[in-house]
Design goal:
4 helices; 99 residues
Length: 99
C-alpha cells in the first residue's frame, strides 16, 4: 500500500473555473508518466473548488513529483488561475481500499 500522499486544495479565480478544470485534466498524461506516482486524482468539490490528491510508494517518488512538471506548471499558472497560491500538504495514508 502506498503510504505517502499529497493533498492540494485549489480555489479558482472568478471566471477561471473552466480553465482550472481543463488545466487539471491536461496534467493526466504527465502523472501517468511518473514511475513513482501510484495514483493521481484531479478533483472538483464545487463550482470554484478543485484539488489534487496523489499517492506514492515512497518519499523519493513524492519528492520527484514535487520537483516534476505538474508542480512546475501549477506554480506557473497559479497567479493566472487561482485565487490564492496553492497549499501542498504532505499527508500519510493510514488505511485504503483500492480497486
Amino acid at each position: 500500500m502506498a503510504k505517502f500522499a499529497l493533498a492540494v486544495p485549489l480555489q479558482a479565480k472568478p471566471g477561471k473555473e473552466a480553465e482550472v478544470a481543463k488545466f487539471l485534466a491536461s496534467a493526466l498524461p504527465l502523472a501517468q508518466a511518473e514511475a513513482g506516482t501510484t495514483s493521481w486524482f484531479a478533483l472538483q468539490f464545487g463550482p470554484d473548488k478543485f484539488g489534487i490528491f496523489d499517492t506514492f510508494k515512497d518519499e523519493a517518488g513524492r519528492q520527484a513529483h514535487l520537483d516534476g512538471p505538474i508542480a512546475a506548471a501549477l506554480m506557473a499558472k497559479a497567479g493566472e488561475l487561482l485565487a490564492q497560491p496553492p497549499t501542498i500538504d504532505k499527508v500519510e495514508i493510514l488505511a485504503a481500499k483500492m480497486g
